[in-house]
Amino acid sequence: MGNKALNMIVLLSRTVSPEASLVVESGQVFVEESNFIINPPDAISLEEALQLKEKYDGKITVLMVSGKEGEKQLRTALAMGADEAVLMECSPKEDEPSIIAKKINDYLQSVNFDLILAGDFSTDGASSQVGPRIAALLDIPFITKTICINQEERNAIVKRNGDGDIETFRVPFPFLVTIPQGLHVPRLPSLSGIMKAKKKPLLFKQSKEISNINNLKQYSYPNLKRKQTNIQGETQEKVVTLAKLLKSLQ
Amino acid sequence: MKEKIIILGEYQQGNPSSITLECITAAKQLQREAEISLLLMGDEVKKDVSDLEQYDVDQMIIVENPFLSRFSSEMYSKALLSIWNQLQPTILLCGHTDIGKAISPYLSEKVDIPLYSNVEDFESYERKLYFTRSVYSGKLMERVEVNEPTFLVTIKPKKWEAAPKKVGRKNIIRTMEVTIEKPISSLIGLEQKKLDSVGLVDAKIIVGAGRGIQNEEGFALVTKLAELLGGTVGVSRGAVELGLCDATLQLGQTGKTVAPDLYIACGISGAIQHLVGVTSAKTIIAINKDPKAPIFEVADYGVIGDVFDIIPALIKELDNTTI
Ligand SMILES: Cc1cc2nc3c(=O)[nH]c(=O)nc-3n(C[C@H](O)[C@H](O)[C@H](O)COP(=O)(O)OP(=O)(O)OC[C@H]3O[C@@H](n4cnc5c(N)ncnc54)[C@H](O)[C@@H]3O)c2cc1C
Q1: A112-122 burial code (b ≥16 CB/10 A, e <16)
Q2: In A218-236, which positions are buried (b, 16+ CB within 10 angstroms) versus exposed (e)?
Q3: What span, in angstroms and rounded, lies between the C-alpha atoms of B237 and B263?
Q4: How many angstroms is it from B237 CA to the middle of ligand 1?
Q5: Is pTM beyond 0.80 here?
Q6: What ipTM was assigned to the predicted interfaces of this complex?
Q7: CA distance between the termini of chain A
């Protein structure tokens, strides 16, 4: 039996660029729209999907739950090589991982797929919840920290980065994986990719509002400052001081 | 009826992991007058973990099943769901570790109970509970009001003290059954990694290697220094990108969180994504040739200099003074 072409869904979110500076006023965060990018861990799962497509052929749909502004990041994903994009609209209040997962599930109920790829976490909320939640809603297996996906007799052979060992699993399609940071360096959109992206389908979907408790949240800057004693002198003097310091600390 | 707090335990080499003991301390800090149970899953927990009776909780819950011999997201999440349904606890607490991260959202979705992830502080104020978490790549702290009486929470490693054993204590040990259907996914292979990262999280002394260590030679120097101090090596993403080591040694937002007594950052600039993994270190020493490197702002002691000058000289000095 040959390998199958893979019908893949890549979950994307938009986050504030880790380089951007953030303004906090009265405990709330203000971010300029221009600072939003594809969540970096999600760009890595998109890269994995693009490489799988190069190897096995197939189709990549990028799926995002966000306000209309998310179109910009979806176009970038299309320019990187995704085939189709879907934006499930939501209100700014619907930002909890559980709500996002439910909206994604609503959409996935009506489409076919072999593989869902999710990022390890979002750099904003950092809760790592969306991927496993979707697997729970769809009742499909999920594997976190996935570092390699191959096919063998219509099953997937998946390697994951366990703490002590690299583990290999055999999993039937469909399933969900999360991809760890650092697995790939995501490709940049090429000029021809950007041109093609303009003609690729981008669907806007309405979804029913999901009520949210909206727990009150307050933001502040962390305090990281320390003693900051500078050890001075010529190299040898510094080293002697440092060695003494190390002895005293042990 | 009394409330129930369940801690999802992890263990290695015969003992509960530090994060599990940290969960015990955190559970007590919630001050809920609840019965606190420590849950351990595996195929032969009673054989694998010694002193089951001596942890500072009210009850140990042991679940043994051949399907649980190693962590798998599928088996562990199904087992945990079954246990949740049987016990109906008020709160489930676990570490924000590979295991906790994978299975707590699954459970939250299945039982429809809210989950707070990667929490690093609990606070009660005017009878309200607040959780603090690090967000926006470590640049901001988020304080969220917890309105629900029943919730799941994963805690950031190294933010609470590990609860000590209580010698002479006799815990109730309860054995529970879970029925698990044959898994859909099956483990078919294991390969051991070169560098073992298991001890990293609990190391007392960590020497950090960054992009500034540049090459194999630099990495060897850092390894030598760590050995000499009785510590171990952790790295920044810069070092991982150089291809000098496995990503499981990475410290930071996407790596491990550590709290050693001493962290020596060598050739590390001090990006916030790295710092969030190491700022719980008691003492931080930084060696960097750029006096403006942000690492110096978060270091107790800074040495401005080239790692290829400082580390070899330091190794020599330490060698000389120990003899
Ligand atoms: C979403 C996201 C998540 C991330 N997660 C992590 C994470 O978990 N962990 C992590 O570490 N990073 C993480 N990063 C990357 C992080 O932003 C930095 O890029 C990374 O930490 C830089 O590593 P570095 O300090 O080794 O390298 P650099 O920033 O390149 O710094 C190298 C330093 O070495 C010094 N140096 C160079 N040569 C010498 C010499 N001969 N002697 C002395 N000093 C020298 C330089 O002055 C410089 O300060 C993340 C980034 C993003 C966007």
Answers
A1: ebbbbbbbbbb
A2: bbeeeeeebeeeebeeeee
A3: 16
A4: 6
A5: yes
A6: 0.93
A7: 62
